[in-house]
Amino acid sequence: MNFPRPRSLMGQMLLAVAVALLLVQSISAVLIYRAQRERFESALLNAVAFRLAMETRGAKRAAQVRRFNPFGDGLPRGLRVEYSSRSPLQAGEVSDDHAETGLREILTEQGIPAAQVVVVQRAVGDDPVARAWAARHAARQGQGRGDDKEAHDTHLLVAGVRAAPDASWMIARIRSPRAESALLRPLLVQTLVIYLVLVGAVALILRRITRPLAALTRRIEHFAATQDADGQVLPSGPDDMRRLIVAHNAMEARIAALLDEKDVMLGAIGHDLKTPLAALRVRIESVEDDTERARMASTIEDIVRTLDDILSLARVGRPSDPRERTELSALVGSVIEEYEDMGEPVEFGEIERVVLELRPTWLRRALRNLIGNALRYGQRARVSLAREGGLAVIRIDDEGPGIPDDVIEAMMHPFTRGDPSRNSETGGAGLGLALARAIADQHGGDLTLSNRRAPDGAILGLTARLALPLT
């Protein structure tokens, strides 16, 4: 099963730190557990050795009581030593070799002879001597079956030592909680607490770092969409983050100033050029040759149209008019009707009713450019509007020769035109598609061109697809 990975910087860093801490804590917990278990077992073996040593050194006194009263009043602190001719190892049990080696070393250091050593771990309920004592103890105390069950579940360390092959076994019993209960639970709780504290501290630090970064990211996205210098992010977070925010604010202010200067310059250029062009249009009326006068007027009109396209393309990124809730289907229909009124071969395709926020003036400009290109190069235009997922998609189909696949993308760059065989006698400066694409980007959408092909591969025409998000 694949779990989703966090996509944010904080999530990925926190996941990496959490995994690293978990690995380190796990290794540390294993090492600590092993060390504590060795100390735990060593303490039990030392306690058993102490009992055996005390029994050996007090053998004369022990001989008087060793037969039956192996469990005196000291059972809650441990079991007394029992003498037996049989090994403490019962059928089906496996001795603890590691504990036997440790007990033999301790006894040797204490000068206690140990020809044979047997160590086995079992529950009280599995040990007949301890079980009998537990039953008698429960009866004396008047305890119920619940306490008897608890006694049967208690863990025992049973050690038997024989000084010589023909000697009796000295058997010592010690109550010992299981290592898992005595060591593992506290260690797991400690590890979990440390892990949560460390991860929590790292999460707070990462949050302090990533919060201003997230605010800066939102600000950059907003500025990229609107080029509005208002509402800059206040410096916060660590020093490095503060310096980044300060540098970005300075860069943003400089970009906004350059854009303002550009708008002022373009406005001045447009005014300075249109004024003499208007005067020139008046003067050509004095030209007597009608053909020459028409050519001059057409040239002036091309210059004015190109100038308008250049100014519009430069300003499309910083529109001054707000978005309006508009019925897109009605807008598309009104543009088509304009061409029908002029007798142009533009027809309706399938039109769905779509309402969304947009800038009607700019979108009309984009549609006129696309339909104009379809009429200019493809003789006819068919316009349709449909919903596709979360998009409103406008398609303009023509019946022209299409565009070679390797230059379709380049055709949407400013001042790029097709080959002469496609656009001879059509005029234009190659700005229509670039402006339409910029308007689509302004609305968060996209403009793509593609050739329609017949089953045999022949080009049937070009399709311009203008997609706008519905939200």
From TrEMBL:
Superkingdom in the source lineage: Bacteria
Keyword Phosphoprotein: yes
Major place of residence: membrane
EC number(s) per entry: 2.7.13.3
Cellular localisation: Cell membrane
Domain Histidine kinase, first and last residues per copy: 268-471
Keywords: ATP-binding, Cell membrane, Kinase, Membrane, Nucleotide-binding, Phosphoprotein, Transferase, Transmembrane, Transmembrane helix
GO molecular function: ATP binding
Membrane topology, from the record: Multi-pass membrane protein
Residue ranges crossing the lipid bilayer per the database entry: 187-206
Reaction equations catalysed: ATP + protein L-histidine = ADP + protein N-phospho-L-histidine
Annotated ranges, domain HAMP: 207-260
PANTHER family for the chain: SENSOR PROTEIN CREC, SENSOR PROTEIN RSTB
Official protein name in the record: histidine kinase
Native source species: Novosphingobium album
